[in-house]
Design a protein that fits this description.
The chain is α+β, with helices and mostly antiparallel strands. It contains 2 helices and 2 strands, in the order αββα. The chain has helices at about 5-20, 50-70; strands at about 25-35, 40-50.
């Protein structure tokens, strides 16, 4: 398979996934205090949003690369 077709397919899939799930959450564990071997930790959740225009742009670029790779003649 041509590299351009593979890259286009991967980008198109990423664009579709980003449009399907525009928000995701990550967890981070931070050390709040440490006294010798005793550690007090806090788990912090952070939400991230992917702008729909960015997801759509990645999808379009992926489809263009996919179509261009399939259309190329050798």
């Amino acid at each position: 398979m041509k590299p351009m077709v593979m890259l286009g397919a991967i980008l198109a899939l990423i664009g579709l996934l980003a449009l399907s799930y525009p928000m995701f959450t990550t967890n981070e564990t931070k050390n709040v205090a440490q006294l010798g071997d005793l550690k007090i930790q806090a788990n912090e959740q952070t939400s991230h949003a992917i702008p729909p225009i960015l997801s759509g742009a990645v999808l379009v670029v992926g489809l263009v690369l996919l179509g261009g790779g399939l259309y190329q003649r050798r």
